[in-house]
């Protein structure tokens, strides 16, 4: 309790004796709460009640990440990209997710704003090794030449299995006997196999 800017020696509930008939400014403060001020004009010989509710401070969350520019979701809702500061948050546990495009593992954590109004999160998103895959190529005649993404593939047993990384790939098949060729595009998901078949260059 502060009376006209001077600290009163007792916390609430308390009785403050002041001069009657003159307005008095009372300030009420408590850790982790918004301060409340009121002006009271007590009457002579009477006790003027002052009853106020102090609201807790709203939550504040700062999120930084490595790499920077990662997307932030709070309780499943998109809130922006790092570095990011969010104000006016509810004072409770919140589910945080930080994610970035590319080979990065998402960062998840429960942020508890109940005990403290402010939290700072430094999210490190580790790189993950993308799993490769394979192309299965089948063409006629058996003497055709195969290249993947411009690189010649050594001849082998059909269907020809070519180990590749994930993503889109260009397969070119050429028959050196008659000069005919064909080009196909195939996409390989991590750890998967894509088939390139039905190429007849006889």
Describe the structure in brief.
The chain is mainly β and 202 residues long. The protein has no helices and 18 strands.
Structure, explained:
There is one protein chain. It is built from no helices and 18 strands. The protein is mainly β. A 4-stranded antiparallel sheet has the order 2-1-3-4, with no helix packed on it. Strands 7-6-9-10 form a 4-stranded antiparallel sheet, with no helix packed on it.
Any descriptors?
single chain; 202 residues; mainly beta; four-stranded antiparallel β-sheet
Topology, element by element:
Layout: E1 2-3, E2 6-7, E3 24-28, E4 36-40, E5 59-66, E6 71-74, E7 77-81, E8 84-89, E9 93-99, E10 107-112, E11 118-124, E12 133-140, E13 145-148, E14 151-153, E15 160-164, E16 167-174, E17 181-188, E18 193-200
Parallel strand pairs: 5-11, 12-18
Antiparallel strand pairs: 1-2, 1-3, 3-4, 5-8, 6-7, 6-9, 9-10, 12-15, 13-14, 13-16, 16-17
């Amino acid at each position: 309790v502060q009376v006209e800017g001077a600290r009163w020696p007792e916390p609430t509930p308390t009785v403050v004796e002041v001069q009657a008939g003159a307005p008095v400014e009372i300030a009420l403060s408590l850790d982790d709460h918004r301060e409340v001020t009121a002006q009271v004009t007590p009457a002579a010989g009477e006790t003027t009640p002052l009853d106020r509710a102090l609201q807790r401070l709203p939550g504040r969350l700062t999120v930084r990440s490595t790499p920077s520019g990662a997307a932030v979701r709070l309780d499943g809702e998109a809130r922006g990209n790092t570095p990011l500061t969010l104000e006016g948050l509810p004072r409770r546990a919140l589910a945080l997710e930080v994610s970035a495009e590319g080979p990065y593992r998402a960062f998840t954590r429960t942020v508890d704003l109940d005990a403290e109004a402010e939290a700072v999160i430094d999210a490190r998103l580790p790189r993950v090794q993308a799993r490769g895959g394979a192309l299965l190529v089948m063409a006629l005649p058996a003497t055709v030449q195969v290249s993947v993404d411009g690189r010649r593939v050594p001849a082998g047993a059909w269907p020809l299995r070519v180990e590749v990384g994930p993503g889109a790939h260009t397969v070119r098949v050429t028959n050196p006997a008659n000069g005919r060729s064909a080009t196909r595009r195939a996409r390989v998901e991590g750890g998967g196999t894509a088939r390139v078949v039905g190429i007849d260059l006889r």
